[in-house]
Amino acid sequence: MTPSSMTLLGARCWDGDAWIDAPIHLQGGLVVERPARDGVVVDLRDQDATILPGLVDAHTHLGIPPLHPNAAGMTDVALDDVMMQSARIHIKAGVTTVRDLGELRGRNHVWAERQHASDWTGPRIVQYGTPLTVTDGHCAWMGHACDGPDAADQAARRELELGADGVKLMVSGGLSSQGTDARGLLMDAASIQAACNVARNRSAPVAAHVMGGPGLQTAARMGVTSIEHGYWMSREDADVMAAHGVMWVPTMTVPWLVAERVPFGDATPSEAMAQLAREAREAQHASMQHALAAGLHIVAGTDYAPGTLADEIRLMSEAGVPTDDALRAATSSAAKLLRLADVGHLRTGAHADVLVVQGDPRRDMRVLTRPMMVIRGGVVVHDERANATA
Ligand SMILES: [Zn+2]
Asked: Are residue 310 and residue 354 in the same domain, yes or no?
């Protein structure tokens, strides 16, 4: 699809790091400095619009339905169907880049290739292949069972050789894994270190799923790049993470949705899961205060339900993250974690990934749930304005 040459005129623009009052020019799939001679002008000035970079969801799974009774038995065709639906939901929600943190049979490797097709209109995909876990650990049904450093070393090597952009570790139990200790350290320090060593030698990042407990500090000390979830985080945990430069993806929407037993696909969380989620929801507000006091680099990710990134940012700001930092968490700060220099901002040379919403997120974050226009690589992939006039 050919990218359009376009100038977006709007009263407000969040460029990924600051508020600016300038038009945005797009040409050849990139943000450019000057308007193209034959470019279309989209005048948003009288529409109370805000222009932002396309959002970045740093923790998703396009495919795995965690509550599906027979998720492990899904065929590639069925999995691809779910992944396509998720990709569409992300784009419609203004998410133009995702980090897929784990799929059954490494299906995300295949999808990372698909994004390079000329007719691809889904989000950009950064992916960490199949996660490393332990026998009977979190997501054991889909991950590599690594019961010791040798197995962790081999699995990390294999994923990176297959083309993964990073390594995902399941360090503790999780909300969806009944019978595992949500805060227990399931993967031993030596295995975490073995995976981190492999990743470091290849300049690849490591994302560690840790709900809380001793795994937070162990993973931080062993050299992971980010902690995913961390619902039960003490001040000391946050300080250790900060000292090691570890970023945090709090995935606040997960306990928020699971606690209310919001269905995922055709399955509803059990009452036991919902109870644990309520405890996590209670705990995560204190965790956020510790993270803010320690000055952690905070990044937005949804994990459970595609299309809820705007809710994630709102929950962050309600928990005390300053508005601009909450916006950074889903734009420039997220791009930093994904190691992508050309997304998450609208400076000259960035990919022409743009989200337009009606209203001012500084006044009400909920405006982000209603995208007016989504542009991906200069191609308009969602346009409510067109629907309104059709
Ligand atoms: Zn996840």
From this structure: no
User: How far, in Å, is the centroid of ligand 1 from the Cα of 101?
Assistant: 6
Domain that holds residue 223: 55-338
Residue 118: its pLDDT value, please?
87
The alpha carbon of 102 and the centre of ligand 1 are apart by a number of angstroms equal to 7
pLDDT score of 389: 45
| Distance between Cα 97 and ligand 1 center (Å) | 16
Task: Check pLDDT > 60 for residue 387.
Answer: no
Query: How many angstroms does the Cα of residue 31 sit away from the middle of ligand 1?
Result: 32
User: Token pair for residue 280?
Assistant: 């996590």
- Helix ranges (DSSP H) in 93-234: 107-114, 149-162, 189-201, 214-222
- For residues 377 and 230, state if they share a domain: no
On whether residue 1 sits in a domain, the answer given is no
Q: Are residues 78 and 11 in the same domain?
A: no
Residue 256 phi/psi, 5-degree rounding, is: -60, -45
Helix axes 76-92, 107-114, angle to 10 degrees: 50
Q: Which pLDDT score, from 0 to 100, does residue 306 have?
A: 92
pLDDT digits (tens, 9 = 90+) for 31-68: 999 999 989 999 999 899 999 999 999 999 999 866 66
Is residue 23 a contact partner of residue 35, using CB atoms and an 8 Å limit?
yes
The pLDDT value recorded for residue 141 is: 85
Instruction: State whether 324 and 201 are in the same domain.
Output: yes
The encoded tokens of residue 88 equal 């569409």
Q: Which residues contact 117 (CB under 8 A, 6 or more apart)?
A: none
Vertex 293 angle, CA 290 and 299, to 5°: 75
CA of 29 to the centre of ligand 1 (A): 31
Over residues 145-203, the pLDDT tens digits come to 999 999 999 999 999 999 999 999 999 988 876 667 888 889 999 999 999 999 999 99
Distance from the Cα of residue 173 to its chain's centroid: 20
Q: Which has more confidence, 319 or 181?
A: 319
**Residue 145: phi, psi to the nearest 5?**
-75, 110
Q: How far is the CA of 323 from the centre of ligand 1 (A)?
A: 25
318 C-alpha to ligand 1 centroid (Å):
23
